[in-house]
C-alpha cells in the first residue's frame, strides 16, 4: 500500500495520522446494525477503524490500483463490499434498502458536486461525516450576510443541518495538502425540495455576487414577482435566507409544472 503514488487527477491525499483517524471514528461511532458508505477509502486507514464495528461497509473507489489492493486486502471480510466506480456516477438507491451512514475524505476537486449528488439521496441517509477543505466546510455552514454564504450554503442548509466538528492540519496527510481540512457532520432534514428549480434559482442568484436580485434573477422573476414574495428587488442574493430562496424555487417549480 505504501508504494502507491498519490494521483493528482483523483485529488489523493491519504490520511495517516492515527489520532485523527481515531477521532473521526469516535465521532461516527457505528453500531453493528448499521450500513456505512465510504467514499474514497484510499489506503483504508478509516476503513480499518470502522469495519469492526459496523454491520456492513460499502466502499466506492475510482482508482483501479487501490481498488485491486482493497479487494485483495478485505477478501475474507464478509462485511466489506467494494464498488470500483466514480462516486459521482453511483446510484446510491441501488445499495439495498437499509439506511446509510456516509463517511469519507472527499476528493477536494469534486467535493461540491459530490455533496449535491449525495444530498439528493438523503431520504435514505442517516448522516454524513465527511472531510472537506476548510473553506468548503465553512461555505456549507455559512449564514446569510456572511461573505462565504452562497449556492452551497443555501442548498445544504435546506437539505441538512451542518456542524463543523474539528479541523485537520495538512501534516495529517500524505502528501500534505496546501490547505487545512475540516470534518463536518450533515444530518439530513425530512423535507421535499424542488431540486431542479432550486438549483436554477441559486445558479442565477450567485453567478455574480454583487448583482441585485432584479438583475441576477431577472430572467426567472419580474420585479413584481419578487415583491410579491416580500423581497426588495434591490437586495443582493447574499441577504436572502434559505427559506426565501426555497419560496422562489417553489414558485418556479409550480410555474414549470403548470406550463407542462
TrEMBL record:
S-adenosyl-L-methionine binds at residues 13, 15, 40, 61, 86, 105. Its main location: cytoplasm. Pfam families: RrnaAD (PF00398). Keywords: Cytoplasm, Methyltransferase, RNA-binding, rRNA processing, S-adenosyl-L-methionine, Transferase. This is Ribosomal RNA small subunit methyltransferase A. One of its GO terms (molecular function) is 16S rRNA (adenine(1518)-N(6)/adenine(1519)-N(6))-dimethyltransferase activity. It comes from the Bacteria. It comes from Oceanococcus atlanticus. InterPro entries: KsgA/Erm, rRNA_Ade_diMease-like_C, rRNA_Ade_Mease_Trfase_CS, rRNA_Ade_methylase_Trfase_N, rRNA_adenine_dimethylase, SAM-dependent_MTases_sf. SUPFAM superfamilies: S-adenosyl-L-methionine-dependent methyltransferases.
Amino acid at each position: 500500500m505504501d508504494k502507491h503514488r498519490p494521483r493528482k487527477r483523483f485529488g489523493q491525499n491519504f490520511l495517516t495520522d492515527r489520532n485523527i483517524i481515531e477521532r473521526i471514528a469516535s465521532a461516527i461511532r457505528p453500531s453493528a446494525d448499521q450500513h456505512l458508505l465510504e467514499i474514497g477509502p484510499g489506503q483504508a486507514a478509516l476503513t480499518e477503524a470502522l469495519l469492526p464495528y459496523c454491520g456492513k461497509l460499502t466502499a466506492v473507489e475510482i482508482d483501479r490500483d487501490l481498488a485491486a489492493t482493497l479487494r485483495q486486502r478485505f477478501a475474507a471480510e464478509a462485511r466489506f463490499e467494494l464498488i470500483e466506480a466514480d462516486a459521482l456516477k453511483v446510484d446510491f438507491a441501488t445499495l439495498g434498502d437499509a439506511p446509510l451512514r456516509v463517511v469519507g475524505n472527499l476528493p477536494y476537486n469534486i467535493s461540491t458536486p459530490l455533496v449535491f449528488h449525495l444530498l439528493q439521496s438523503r431520504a435514505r441517509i442517516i448522516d454524513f461525516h465527511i472531510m472537506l477543505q476548510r473553506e468548503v466546510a465553512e461555505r456549507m455552514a455559512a449564514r446569510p450576510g456572511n461573505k462565504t454564504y452562497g449556492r452551497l450554503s443555501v442548498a445544504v442548509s435546506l437539505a441538512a443541518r451542518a456542524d463543523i466538528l474539528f479541523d485537520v492540519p495538512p501534516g495529517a496527510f500524505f502528501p500534505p495538502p496546501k490547505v487545512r481540512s475540516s470534518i463536518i457532520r450533515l444530518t439530513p432534514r425530512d423535507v421535499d425540495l424542488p431540486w431542479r428549480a432550486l438549483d436554477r434559482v441559486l445558479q442565477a442568484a450567485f453567478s455574480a455576487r454583487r448583482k441585485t436580485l432584479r438583475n441576477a434573477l431577472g430572467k426567472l422573476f419580474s420585479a413584481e414577482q419578487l415583491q410579491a414574495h416580500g423581497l426588495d428587488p434591490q437586495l443582493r442574493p447574499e441577504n436572502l435566507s434559505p427559506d426565501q430562496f426555497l419560496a422562489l424555487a417553489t414558485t418556479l417549480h409550480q410555474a414549470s409544472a403548470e406550463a407542462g
